Amino acid sequence: MEILPSSAYSIAVLDRTKECGATGEPLYTDIVSAFMKAFSNGDIESLPKIIGGRYGLSSKEFTPAMVNAVFANLAKPTPKNPFTIGIFDDVTHLSLDFNANEHCDDPQWTQAMFYGLGADGTVGANKNSIKIIGENTSLYAQGYFVYDSKKSGARTVSHLRFGPNTIKAPYLIHTAGFIACHQFGFLEKVDVLGNAAKGAIFYLILFMTKMKFGKIFRLIYRKKLWTLICVFL
User: Mean pLDDT, to the nearest integer, of 102-129?
Assistant: First the structure.
């Protein structure tokens, strides 16, 4: 209560859990109880508007677009309470709409994604690369690595950011200027180019002859990428 600004009249409490049957999630109930106690003791003159929501369910990320949606809901005269952000709730209809294409990436960042197969060296190479950039250049660097607990043989995705300014982006890359795919089969199973920015460079290793490249070329053309680098093995 001591650190709460006196100008705060609306509060949104976010919990990364779902307590079925409870009156609210743990942090939300703690905040409400604390304000009610302070009000009954005369420590505060009035109660702010307090709403509770869930985020990060089903391992969903929490992006700046979702933050904007939470603030937009909080600013409404009658905000949705409780609410869910990040997933589409078609059962209880508590989810907030947000613009998935809304980003606040620094235009000076270089963002790259690498698709590989567990134990093929992709993750290890990218960890070394981001370490070298961060320790031996004037650039700030950040790396996130997504892979199954049974890493060997499973799909891995490396997310690398670096740039001249401090990087405060605790979420994965959604608009990559460089995408590398080290396994051709991923193109038929995963939307590898779904996060490609306009004009992105796509680096593809092909275990095929150039005669069979037509299908891949049509895919790249539909995504309107400007640069394609292929390595035929």
Answer: 90
